[in-house]
Amino acid sequence: MLNTDLAKPEVDLTVCEYTDIPMHVSLATYEYTFDPWTNDSRYLYSHANMHTEIHELNVLMRSKIPWISVFFISAFSYAIMLVCFMVIFPIYRYEQYESLAFTFSCIFLVAFIHYMMCIICRYLITKNVILSVESKIKELNKKYKHEQIYFKLINFRGLGFRYLKFLPIFKKNIYFTLRVVYVYCKII
Fold first, then answer.
1. What residues have CB less than 8 Å from 177, skipping those under 6 apart?
2. TM segments (predicted)?
3. Are strands 13-26 and 31-34 parallel, antiparallel or unpaired?
C-alpha cells in the first residue's frame, strides 16, 4: 500500500546560511562602519549588490552624525578630570594654596559636567544612527524578499542598554553586527 501523505511537499525545503558583518564603533570619534562584504562562496547571488548595500549603509551612518559632535569628545574632559583630581588633593593640604585648589575643583566640576553631556550626546547619536540603520534594513528586507535574503541587526552588548555604549578610549569595538541570512541550497 502506498502512503499518500508522503507526497512531494508544496514548498521546497531550503538550507539557509548566514554571514555576519560586524559594525565597528569608535565612540571617541563617533565613527560607525560596517566591514566590507566578504565574497563568501556560500552566497549564491551577486556579490556586487551586497557590496553596494553595505556601502550605502556606511554612507547612511556617516550622514547621521552631526557636525556638533566634535564639541562632545569625552576623552578631553576625562583627561582634564584626571589631572584635576591628581592635583587637588596634594594642593588642598596647604592653606596658602586653597584658592588654587578651589580653581582646580571648579575645573573638575566643569569637566565632569562636560563628560556627562558627552554621554548624553553619545546616546542620542548612537540612537539616531541605529534607528536609521534599522529602517534601512526593513527596506532591504522588502527589497530582497523574493530572493529570500533577510537582514537583521544584532546587538552584542548586554545589560539591557541598546543605544547607550560606554567608552573604551580610542578603540573600535564591535557593538553590533549585521546578519545576512540567505538560501544556500534547496532540497527537492
1. 20, 21, 22, 23, 153, 154, 156
2. 67-89, 101-125
3. antiparallel
Alpha helix (H) residue ranges in 40-177: 47-63, 74-92, 98-143
Amino acid at 85: F
pLDDT at position 112, please? Answer: 94
Measured distance CA(50)–CA(79) in Å, rounded: 41
Residue with cell 592635583: 87
* Domain range summary for the chain, segments of one domain joined by +: 10-187
Q: What is the pLDDT of residues 95-135, one digit of tens each?
A: 787 888 888 899 999 999 999 998 888 888 888 998 999 99
For residue 43, the 8-state DSSP code is: -
Task: Specify the range with the lowest mean pLDDT, choosing from 30-39, 57-66, 85-94, 159-168.
Answer: 159-168
Q: How open is the CA angle 48-50-51, to the nearest 5 degrees?
A: 65
pLDDT of the residue at 97: 78
